[in-house]
Amino acid sequence: MDWLFAPFEVAFVQRALWGGLLVSCVCALAGTWVVVRGMAFLGDAMAHGMLPGVAVAALLGGNVMIGAAISCTAMAAGVSLLSRGKRFAPDTAIGLLFVGMLATGVIIVSRSQSFAVDLTGFLFGDVLAVRAVDLWYLVAALGVALVVAVLGHRAFVALTFDTRKAHTLGLRPKAAHAALVGLVTLAIVASFHVVGTLLVFGLLIAPPAAAVFWSNRVPVVMAVAALIGGLSTVGGLVISWHAGTAAGATIAAVAVGSFFVSALISAVRERVGRVGMVALAAVPLVGCGATEVPVVEEAAPHGFVAGAEEMSEARTRVVVADEAGAVRVIDLLSGEVTTVDAGSPETARVQPPSSASAGAPPSPSSGGLDVPTVGAVGDGRFAYLSSGASIQVVDSGAWTVDHGDHRHYYVAPIREVGVIAAADSGVTAGPGAGSVTPAPEDGSGAGRSGVAGAYSDAAVASLVLDSGASILLDRPALDGGAAQPQRRIEGIALPYAERIVVADSSGRVEVRGRDGATGHVQAVTCPQPEGQAVTRRGVVFGCADGALVVAQREGDVVAEKIPYPAQTTDRASVFTHRPGSTTLTALAGRDGVWSLDIRKKTWTRIAIPDAVAVNTAGEGSPLLVLTRDGVLHGIDPETGTETARTALIAGPVEGDPVISVDPERAYINDSRARTVHEIAYNDNLRVARTFSLDIAPSLMVETGL
Q1: 502-559 pLDDT, tens per residue?
Q2: How far apart are CA 483 and CA 417, in angstroms?
Q3: With helix as H, strand as E and coil as C, how does 4-25 read?
Q4: Omega cis (within 30) before 527
């Protein structure tokens, strides 16, 4: 083993080893977030953007690490400033500054003859020249990186998977982003001496990227990345010593090689399974006398859903239906339109149980809706199309599973699940003959009778009826293709925090168990409950005197009223919002709209005549208001001023238009033109795409979120 230990008997190689190990730890802390957040281009640009500062510092005889830090900080500030504009994507700003800073550095180097000898060290590092004082700088850098990583972990997680969740939790995402960029800057500057400006990106990215193949938990990925980086340092120094190659470049090459080795092992593991890997590893240990090998069943991987394909990003779809019951599903990624057979013979009609017959078995009959559809709502995956007498359940085949710190995105075949006959369950023709109820809480559809809202968790799906009652369905059975009602609850019932929160007609609000057992009655009441929503900060009930928010805090469920700013007759009866957002909107009579900020606990009424639909993406986004003349307005929620407008629909608008909002786009149905418009709401309400259909999309639900 002399070949392994011989290099480290030399003092400067020992310092190089310690320097590489410290840099590996710093890069593991920062590089993990670079990989998880998809910031690789920014990291590469900042690494190359170091060159001007390094060149100027060396030219003036100053500390090159300080010059590198100043250059990287200027690069980060420039990217942040240019990215605030809406005219181009952030990677455009990164690319411009990347080229500009690199070109500036090359110009400085080319104009100074003193760089003729040192240029290779600047570009490729000189790890063997690490001094004792540099090690102390690296120790300090590691300490700072640890503090930032620990204190900012919660904010970084929320920022990575949902920026608006960071807003919701009060984690100040802008400050978190700045801290994360600072952490990356620290890692790049610390790595400069080891691998230089051109190769620092490899040490920052390769070990965390390799570690991702071994774990999906951020702290574990960081630890594994530090281990891989340390091993790359040792391996690179040994190879460099014996082969006579550049030490910094060799370390970077070994680090990148570790990524491809991890990728290869992961591919083999996925192909032959964990059992196969164990068997392959055990082959050298098995003797000729072995006669029997025990069979071990492989556990399903995290997030596995039978019959579904997991995607790398959300695959959103829009379910539309006309008043005759024809159903179409638009894939918003491919633009493909799928026809759903609403009368397939294999579809079973299911009678929901009455409150006195909870748990009664369903009775099958013929499938499909036999009366016109008049309302539609969705729960993120399923669309529920109501006729007043029955409810058709359509599986859009696209949904998201939110685990808090990460999400899974799935697609599956589009199909009709079943039809629930709801005529005997309190579903009527609406509040009055010919009456119209606006869009449901998630902005995904409008209901004139039947179902007013749909909400799901892993165990139950709740259909809130216009009558004020609710039907609970077995969600696992629904996922499996069977609509199986469990029981009926007299009141608005919403699944939340593994409980059922119920607001009944008397104004009483009760938190029950999943089994329906009587639970805790809240001290705060909700008179005349009408309208509901489920947000990340709790469930919301619309009351005659304001909104009631029921939320879980430190294990307890508490209720808090957000009263209207003044007595009003134009109460919010149906809420709209982007799924996950804590900013809700609602129509306020014929001449205004409401905006309810649950985080700030404030109502804002904005006057706008003849509003027929409203929604918003949440904090920092405009209110989207469609008026009867077919004009779409962008409204600043703070000041109430109009920021943009576009003539979208040939007025006057017919039926009940819907504004559905996701993190990137908004979708509005146009029944007369038989189209669905896609709106870039952060780009002056630009019409990005228009989907033409063979039916009038009177009803619309967006899924996959």
Answers
A1: 999 999 999 998 877 777 899 999 999 999 999 988 999 999 999 999 998 877 889 9
A2: 7
A3: HHHHHHCHHHHHHHHHHHHHHH
A4: no
Q: Are 507 and 559 in contact (CB under 8 A)?
A: no
DSSP codes joined into one string, 587-648: E-TTSEEEEEETTTTEEEEEE-TTEEEEEE-STTSPEEEEETTSEEEEE-TTT--EEEEEE-
Place of tokens 């019932």: 493
Q: Which residues of 222-249 are buried (b: 16+ CB within 10 A; e: fewer)?
A: bbbbbbbbbbbbbbbbbbbbeeeebbbb
Query: Quick check: 388 and 373 in contact, CB under 8 A?
Result: no
> Per residue in 90-99, pLDDT tens?
667 677 777 7
Mean pLDDT value across the chain: 78
In three-state secondary structure terms, 586 is strand
Which one, of 196, 230, 226, 204, lies nearest residue 214 by Cα? 226
Rounded CA-CA distance 549/541 in Å is: 7
Determine contact, residues 411/315, Cβ cutoff 8 Å: yes
Residues 262-289 as b/e (b if ≥16 CB within 10 A, e otherwise) read beeeeeeeeeeeeeeeeeeeeeeeeeee
Q: Residue length, the chain?
A: 705
3-state DSSP assignment of residue 194: helix
Residue whose token pair is 């300490």? 143
- Amino acid identity, position 315: R
- The predicted-structure confidence for 64-123, as pLDDT tens digits, reads as follows 777 777 887 787 777 767 666 555 566 676 777 777 877 787 777 666 554 444 455 555
CA 13 – CA 339 distance, rounded (Å): 68
What are 105's two structure tokens? 């550095």
What's the rounded Cα separation, in Å, for the pair 227 and 208? 10
Residue 525 confidence (pLDDT): 94
Amino acid 293: pLDDT: 43
**Number of CB atoms found within 10 A of residue 598's CB:** 23
pLDDT digits (tens, 9 = 90+) for 559-601: 999 999 988 889 999 999 998 888 999 999 889 999 999 999 9
